[in-house]
Write a structure and sequence with these properties.
Blueprint lengths: L1 H17 L5 H4 L7 E2 H4 L3 H10 L6 E2 L1 H5 L4
Antiparallel strand pairs: 1-2
Helix pairs in contact: 1-4
Length: about 70
């Protein structure tokens, strides 16, 4: 149960933090519709949360992964 609560709090914190982070379009430098770890380095918050946000573990963040980090 503690793990579930911790994960929920982490995701809620991530979602609220992302509201103030650089926009997806700003981070997607090459305009491929994805944010790589290299592109994410422009934002400390995204970099710190990259592994948790990358829910499909493909090494990129999509708009849906950032918009819905709990999915």
């Amino acid at each position: 149960m503690r793990k579930v609560i911790f994960c929920t709090l982490t995701l809620l914190t991530a979602a609220s933090t992302l509201a103030t982070a650089a926009s997806f379009e700003e981070l997607d430098v090459n305009k491929d519709g994805l944010i790589s770890i290299e592109e994410a380095k422009a934002d400390k918050t995204i970099t710190a949360l990259f592994a948790e946000l990358d829910t499909n573990k493909d090494g990129y963040l999509s708009k849906s992964e950032i918009a819905s980090p709990s999915e």
